[in-house]
Structures are given as C-alpha cells and as structure tokens.
Amino acid sequence: MTRTKVLELLGNPLHRNLESFGNSDLMSQSTWSYGNDGRCSLLCDLAWIQYQINFDPDGKVIAKKRTVFHD
Q1: Cα–Cα distances in Å, from 52 out to 14, 23, 39, 42, 44?
Q2: Which residues contact 50 (CB under 8 A, 6 or more apart)?
Q3: Cα 5 vs. chain centroid, distance in angstroms?
Q4: I need a surface site. Which of 23, 53, 63, 70 has the fewest CB within 10 A?
Q5: What's the pTM?
Q6: Cα(58)–Cα(53) distance, rounded to whole angstroms?
Q7: Is 26:11 a contact under the CB 8 Å cutoff?
Q8: pLDDT tens for residues 5-46?
Q9: Residue 51 pairs with which residues in a beta bridge?
Q10: Measuring CA to CA, which residue among 70, 33, 40, 24 is closest to residue 55?
C-alpha cells in the first residue's frame, strides 16, 4: 500500500516523527502516527491506542504497529 492510499483511508497523521523537524513535506516522512490520549477529565483517564505506519523510501508500507497505553 502507498502513502497516498493510507492518506485516503486514514487522513493526515496526528503526529510526525523526529525526522520531520524542519521538513514540512508529509509525503517524504518515513513514519506516520495516529491516535492520542483523549484525557477523559471528568471521570478518568482511559487507555488509548496509537497506530504507527512505516514506509520505505519508495513510499510503500513496510510495517505497522499498534500500541495500547494504559495511562
């Protein structure tokens, strides 16, 4: 799958990796991250899930990672 297809399915990533400092070109990034801590402030702070997608230099997905945070 390509970056373009991921963008079409999931939209813009919420976070950029460290290599993106000074680089505003989303399509050149090797890692896109989705998900954040919603900070359920009224009742609790629930667990949350982050999805990370890694691309090779040609823009094809080479790895995906799902992490559950219990904070």
Answers
A1: 10, 19, 20, 28, 25
A2: 33, 34, 35, 36, 66, 67, 69
A3: 14
A4: 70
A5: 0.72
A6: 14
A7: no
A8: 999 999 988 766 655 445 556 777 788 888 876 666 666 667
A9: 34, 66
A10: 33
